[in-house]
Amino acid sequence: MSDVKRMHETLSRALPDIPLEVESAQAGMSWIHVPAEHIAAVIGHLRHTEGFDYLACLTGIDTGEELQIAYTLRSLPDKTECALKISLPRDEAVVPTISHLYGVADWFEREVFDLYGVHFDGHPDLRRIMMPDDWEGHPLRKDYVFPSEYHGISAERPDPHDLLDPEYEACAVDPAPKSDSKEGSTS
Amino acid sequence: MYHWGEGFAMPTKLDWLLNTPRKNSIWYLLFATACCGIELMQTGGPRTDLDRFGAVFRATPRQADLLLVAGSVTYKMADRVRRLYDQMPEPKYVLAMGSCANSGGLFARSYSVVKGVDKIIPVDVYLPGCAPRPEALNHALLTIQKRMMKDKWSVRRTTSSEKLL
């Protein structure tokens, strides 16, 4: 956490024109929120000046309202970590590529394009990487509609519980939170 | 001079003659798509030695009698599985190993996994389990052998994968 705050101060001093914010989740991880159009400049600064030589992770998140991309950078000599996040509108998700800064970002960005439909501006080879080339849609989006068939292969298969026992409720999860169940057990 | 006798018993004998060497030399295709492949390797190992039934792995479908689908098959892989199956010479048999190959298993509600390999190719034996133990796979191979002994030489197994679609 201190790494991220320290890096936020360093970045704010080095790049005063770019509005940067530190955000943190309840679980303890914190990150720097960057405007999407400046992400290549910020990561380029971290790469060349601050010594973040390793892109550990680049992944997408669909919150339902917006798309996010999370970058996790590491510095192997300094043993520090810095996480960055950007937000994108769902209907027009375009972001500058960082594949010229980190070679590994090439495939990471293809993966995010494949599963979330984010277009990386300037990417040398933006194709699907995991799904077939003629696949329609981007599967990890919240509004993705599952296909009923692919190349003539039906995706329908009845739930065996329906065939054997129509009364059975599949995946019945008790919605009660854990604290309530504890009180219930003690009382 | 040899006489056939009254009852024309040759077909049965011919079946036995053809099927016995077939069942005692099931060469399975080296094809593992997921973690069931680990159990498949284990079954080929010394403890449950598949080689004692004459079953050895082949690295090419042209020499294989048994397509052992070990693991989940994605839609991207489905075309390849069908192609491998079509490249195998007759008579050919398919063993769907593990829950994923049977029905999609754990990934049945996924967007990318085929809901059972019998949607692509005809399956002779389904082996449940996640993953099945080597003993179970051994049993499945013996079941395939029994299945082979019932084949009639005069009946061609219609096994084209196109028929399913």
Tally the helices of chain A: what do you get? Answer: 5
The radius of gyration computed from the alpha-carbon positions of chain A, rounded to a whole number of angstroms, is: 21 Å
Order of helices and strands of chain A: HEEHEEEEHEEEHH
- The rounded Rg of chain B comes to 17 Å
Please provide a written account of the structure.
The complex is a heterodimer of chains A (187) and B (165). Chain A is an alpha/beta fold and 187 residues long. Chain A is built from five helices and nine strands; from the N terminus they run αββαββββαβββαα. Chain A has one domain (2-177): Beta Polymerase, domain 2. In chain A, the strands form three sheets. Chain A has a five-stranded mixed sheet. In chain A, a hairpin with a 2-residue loop joins strand 8 (149-150) and strand 9. Chain B has a single domain, classed as Rossmann fold (3-Layer(aba) Sandwich). Chain B has helices spanning 10-23, 36-44, 75-87, 98-103, 134-149; strands spanning 27-29, 56-58, 66-70, 93-97, 125-127. The longest helix of chain B has 16 residues, at 134-149. Classes of the chains: A alpha/beta (187), B alpha/beta (165). Chain A binds chain B through residues 130-132, 135, 139, 144, 146-147, 150-157, 160, and chain B through 75-76, 78-79, 103-104, 108, 111-112, 114-116, 119-120, 165.
